[in-house]
Design a protein that fits this description.
Bound molecules: FE2/S2 (inorganic) cluster, fe (ii) ion
Strand content: 25-35%
Structural class: alpha+beta
Order of helices and strands: EEHHEEEEEEEEEEHHEHHHEEEEEEHH
Largest sheet: 9 strands, mixed
Helix content: 10-25%
Number of helices: 9
């Protein structure tokens, strides 16, 4: 039995049922995107834009990146109560996490064993999982409890129809799932990340969900991650942002499957970040492979989780969840959300959609990473780090695996 950082029980699984033949990329295709790339950022050419436009890369990423990496589900507050559940879809795979009536956290394919209908929707609380199609019922441990009229069948054994489990882990009070039964635990894959988050956001466990922003973007998900990972564009494209943080303190470091982007708050009077008497004075951001960003902004106790989901080779959508001390944002927080929604996001979305159009022309295949030895916020070494993880995956290895 595994224990998470809040002492909650998380069930181990040993259930490789349903594994399919993996999708692979041909060596020629992999070579075509890594040509010119070098593990040393100042020598490297960036990866070829083909992987931002060719659907074969997206098919591969869905199966071999998104179905084999730790995907954020929700804050652990949503799954504290016995019977509480949270459903999601991970790149086409319906999943639900459930806190059993006995107190164990599990995650399952959200799929009935009779005919395959989805079982639970959204979030909620239930002592029993009842399929809306023909009302087969399952316990919150995933065991088949009742199948209407099955008494007429020969050789019908309820034990043959347990829900198929997937991996779930509570990491820094955040619930993550992984469809790969063999996945290395996130706490192990991510090295010092938990220690860093705990030191910047020790109150994360007591924060509560307060707001969600969503965006649909006409760009490959990786173009959005690339943009997120560098502030080389900030003085050009986000003049206001550069008054919010002290750019001279901005430092970016890369570690295994994550990167840390740290700066002190600026001294501006921009109302989006009020640091007057604020309990949090730093701007701390982490990127976690492959599609999650975690953030702590100056102000009252806060945390944000930002996700980038592919939706076709040239589209993606973003979900941006805000956790505050109260479910009602205060005035400063409302202003911070407004600043992100009305200023920063439109600026960034305009940039990445333009880049996607450029990548679809024969005029741009590769560029360079503008890096500096100080690892400053203006340096693009975290983009290079992300691309290095991508190439690892394209070559058939799992970033972070033992
Ligand atoms: S598909 Fe679920 S009971 Fe028939
Ligand atoms: Fe930006």
């Amino acid at each position: 039995m595994l224990w998470d950082d809040t002492g909650d029980r998380v069930a181990p699984i040993n259930c490789p049922e349903g594994l399919r033949m993996p999708t692979t990329l041909s060596p020629e295709l992999v070579e075509s995107v890594q040509m010119g790339f070098d593990e040393t950022p100042r020598r490297a050419w960036s990866i070829n834009t083909r992987c931002y436009t060719d659907p074969r890369f997206l098919d591969f990423e869905r199966e071999q990146v998104f179905h084999r990496s730790w995907q954020f589900l929700c804050h652990s507050e949503k799954l504290r109560e016995p019977g509480s559940y949270m459903a999601t879809v991970v790149q086409g795979q319906p999943i639900v996490a459930v806190r059993s009536t006995g107190g164990t956290l599990r995650a399952f394919y959200n799929v009935c064993k009779h005919r395959g209908h989805e079982l639970l929707k959204g979030e909620g609380k239930s002592k029993l999982i009842v399929c809306p199609y023909h009302a087969w019922s399952y316990t919150t441990d995933g065991d088949l409890k009742a199948a209407r009229r099955s008494e007429h069948l020969e050789g019908f054994d309820h034990a043959d129809f347990c829900l198929t489990q997937v991996r779930v882990e509570v990491f820094c009070h955040l619930v993550f799932i992984n469809l790969d039964p063999e996945a290395t635990p996130l706490a192990e894959q991510s090295g010092e990340l938990a220690t860093e988050i705990q030191s910047y956001a020790p109150d994360l466990g007591s924060l509560t969900h307060a707001h969600r922003l969503t965006y649909r973007i006409k760009a490959n998900w990786k173009a959005v991650v690339d943009n997120f990972l560098e502030c080389y564009h900030c003085p050009v494209a986000h003049k206001d942002f550069c008054t919010l943080v002290d750019m001279s303190t901005y430092n970016v470091t890369t570690h295994g499957i994550y990167s840390s982007h740290m700066a002190e708050a600026g001294k501006s009077d921009n109302a989006a970040y009020s640091v007057e008497g604020a309990s949090v004075q730093d701007h701390a951001v982490w990127y976690l492979w492959p599609n999650t960003a975690l953030m702590r902004y100056p102000g009252r106790g806060n945390f944000m989780v930002w996700r980038f989901h592919p939706d076709g080779p040239d589209h993606c959508f973003e979900e941006f969840d805000f956790y505050f001390e109260t479910a009602e944002p205060n005035d400063d927080e409302i202003e911070a959300i407004r600043f992100i929604d009305d200023v920063l996001q439109p600026e960034d979305i305009g940039l990445v959609e333009s880049v996607q159009r450029g990548m679809q022309t024969p005029a741009f295949n590769q560029g360079r990473y503008l890096v500096d030895p100080e690892l400053s916020g203006l340096s693009e070494h975290a983009v290079h780090h992300f691309h290095s993880l991508l190439l690892t995956a394209y070559r058939g290895e799992t970033p972070g695996a033992n």
